Amino acid sequence: MNDNYRFRDQFDQVFRQMAVAAGAREIQYPERLPASVLERADYFESFSETAVPAVTGTFFQPAVCYQIYEALAGQCLDTPLTLTSVGRCRRNEKSCDDARLREFTMREVVLVGSAPWVEAQRRSWSVRVLEFAGEIGLEASLEVATDPFFTNEKIRGKKLLQQLKELKLELQAGIGDDRRTALASFNLHETYFGRRFQISLSDGSPAASACVAFGLERWSLAAIRQLGAFVLAPHTIMAQR
Amino acid sequence: MPLTTHGAEQLLEYINGELLGSSGRVATEETPLFDDGWINSLQILKLIAWIEVAMGRHIPDEQVVMKNFRNVRTIVNQFLHR
């Protein structure tokens, strides 16, 4: 196994361990999902050209979290939930940026509960992951970001709201040649998915949600580009904590 | 009349009349406009367009950040009180 895959899998061990330590339940899903799930999430409205069709009526998952919301659809939550899953994802990337793979591995941690709880969790996760990057010697920074898929002028309002409300934070790191890429994103959805998938709190109000998404190949790329072959295995550092 | 007050009154009138009119909500100068779904993705475009007309210049997307748009007072101070 070459360094790229070895580091990818080791980073996944680290983030899985972080999630389990935070009380997450791990769930596994197939990499294909029904088109109806993406339609329910209104995915095609915002990211119309990025979904990759599979067999009739299904798509390859563009992110892991959609199947989690579908699994929670119609539920009333008595307590906040932390769930995690890892999977292969595909996106029809138009960019020539070699950090934007068309097929990649994503681990996600999904947080569902009241808005204050979700916001606090998102903040906590962003700090924890930034600290981890520093511990393994990666230069990285937290930045306010917007989704790069927003190319339609009709969607400009969504993009500006996302930017203004700082709904999306990214952990960005250098990958050489003065280029930076997002290793992880910390996304607040407010009650968007709660309303779309009818996930509610015990008082009947729609649940808030957030997701923390780790692009595992990008972590591997940044580690190799920044630290070279002498990088200390990330799972070893976690074990020393 | 100070420009700040004038701008705030006109902006509040626009927000409460045109943007929030059917919601039953009434904003003040201090109301956090982007908390709890007060303004949606279509309304923010209308709001920006109104401000651009009022001040006579384009607002770059990079300036659409919370420190400039938190409430009516910050919008007026940032864009209309020049």
What structural category characterises the helix and strand content of chain A? alpha+beta
Coarse morphology of chain B: globular
In terms of DSSP E residues, the strand content of chain B is: under 5%
Query: How many distinct folded domains of chain B?
Result: 1
Strand content of chain A: 25-35%
- CATH class division of chain B: Mainly Alpha
**CATH superfamily placement of chain B:** ACP-like
The name of the CATH topology of chain A is BirA Bifunctional Protein, domain 2
Measured between the Cα atoms of the first and last residue of chain A, the distance is: 27 Å
Number of strands of chain A: 12
CATH C-level label of chain A: Alpha Beta
Report the major sheet of chain B.
none
> What distance lies between the first and last C-alpha atoms of chain B, to the nearest angstrom?
14 Å
The gyration radius over C-alpha positions of chain B equals 12 Å
What's the name of the CATH homologous superfamily of chain A? Bira Bifunctional Protein, Domain 2
Low-confidence stretches of chain A: none
What topology emerges from the helices and strands here?
The complex is a heterodimer of chains A (241) and B (82).
Chain A: H1 3-21, E1 25-26, E2 32-34, H2 35-40, H3 43-46, E3 52-53, E4 58-60, H4 65-72, E5 76-77, E6 81-90, E7 103-113, H5 115-135, E8 140-144, H6 156-164, E9 168-174, E10 180-190, H7 192-196, E11 200-201, E12 208-215, H8 216-227, H9 234-240
Chain B: H1 3-19, H2 41-55, H3 66-69, H4 72-80
Helix pairs in contact in B: 1-2, 1-4
List keywords for this structure.
heterodimer; A: alpha+beta; seven-stranded mixed beta sheet; B: 82 residues; mainly alpha; Non-ribosomal Peptide Synthetase Peptidyl Carrier Protein, Chain A
